[in-house]
Amino acid sequence: MQLTIHATGSNVEVISYLLAKNPNNLYERSNNGHLVRMFYNKFTSEEVEVTFFVTPDPINLSRNSSENYDITSYINDREFVVSSIFCSFLRSALGTALNGKPKEEYASWVNHAFNFQFSFGPLTSDLSDKQIIDLFAPLGYEVEITYGKVDYQVNIKSKSTARFVTLKGLTTLQNGIRQIFMLIPVLDNYKHYYIDEKEIEKIERYGEGWMDTHPQREFILRRALRFKELLDSVEMDAKSKSEGKAAEKRVRLNDLRYEKIIDYIKNLTNRESIVDFGSGEGKLSVRLGFVKGVKEILAVEPSEVAALKALKRFEELRGKENFLQPTPVMGSLFYFDERLKSKDVIVLCEVIEHIDEYRLPKIMGTILREYKPKTLIITTPNQEYNQVYDMGKEYRHSDHRFEWTRVEFQEWCNSHNPGSYELTFEGIGEEHPTFGYPTQMGMFTRKENQ
After folding, report:
1. Rounded mean pLDDT of 214-221?
2. 243 pLDDT exceeds 90?
3. Which of 4, 200, 339, 428 has minimal Cβ neighbours within 10 Å of its Cβ?
4. pLDDT band at 157 (very low <50, low <70, confident <90, very high)
5. Secondary structure (DSSP) of 77-88
6. pLDDT tens for residues 33-46?
């Protein structure tokens, strides 16, 4: 399996920063036994060409098959052809480009279009050449499809059924890779992983800006989502957007986290002052602004870009009835801030997993021994639940430094409790009988007279 990205034009060398891959280094990683390699074929100020190879472990693929007791799980083309498996193995290597989050000084190049040529294969698909062209041509690509050569000892056929696809067009690196990652599983029509609402979130993220207007949209969704209720959920969202109505929307895991946190805070006796650490674009802080009894919300965020988006979100709701506008604070968990002492509630919603583990003890010491909130709420992914998504050892986000099991999270919380807090734990999301909830939440409640 391989993907080659070729680009030409002025300043094209910045692509190495958008990929976060040094042209002087060979990239080689093992992903649960499956090998991912990358190298640059060309690298100048006017031309860049980089190739990614994936060599899966066929035995490992067979072990993870849903047909373990069928010999066809060993006799298949999964280890050779471009498929959803290929995309899952490459996702980590291309995480920076997919998320559009290079180093800050190169952020402006994320939306810069270059003359790209994306080539991938071999591909075995039940779609005709015309159907493949109809998927990519509306996105502005010139599509070229070639067939591999064969050299049989007997005259069975003149060419292989395996195809190689080349896309040429003016686009951004992020858009190009997202479109390929979304459409390769459609070409292959083979899903090696559990299909659930996480797939809808991926479609919305990767399809932003082009999916809604694609003439083959319904066909893409049918091939990408096998379950009718998931298709109906996507259509319901589209209908809501097009008609401008407050139609009932499916509840995402992120929304469930916010609801759980808010419900917990509503039942606290002391909730006048709240610190939302790592507040990002302000989505949780805005919801906290409608909680009765809250008199102060400090939205603490180190990223200027995210803080500006949050400020815009806060301003849009200024003056709305029963809304307390949060106060943006440029700050970080790594630095002590006198303004954050003695608050009623501190919230770390999906924050700790973005921090190196060795730095966490100091952070917890600062919060529990110096800031001393009456309540500390922490949410983080439950690593065990990743098995429901068939993710293997892959993290849910490319920026995660770790993901803990339920036991690991509880042991960590207990180890950092200075003794002045009561600890309780709950789950968030749909519970699995074996792997628990997708998100785990720990609550530190300060004991009376402490």
Report:
1. 90
2. no
3. 339
4. very low
5. STTTS-SHHHHH
6. 668 889 999 999 89
| Range with the poorest average pLDDT among 35-49, 110-124, 385-399 | 385-399
Residues 6+ positions from 54 with CB-CB distance below 8 Å = 1, 2, 34, 35, 36, 37, 86, 89, 90
Distances (CA, A) of 252 to 196, 256, 264, 429: 11, 6, 18, 9
Rounded CA separation 6/40 (Å): 10
Residue ranges of the domains in the chain? 2-193, 253-446
Strands across the sheet with 345-349, in order? Answer: 327-330, 296-301, 273-277, 345-349, 375-381, 439-446, 421-428
* Structure-token pair, residue 146: 């070639």
DSSP symbols for 321-377? TT-PPPEEEE--TTS--GGGTT-SEEEEES-GGGS-GGGHHHHHHIIIIII--SEEE
CATH code: domain 2-193 is 3.30.1610.20
Averaged pLDDT, 110-116: 96
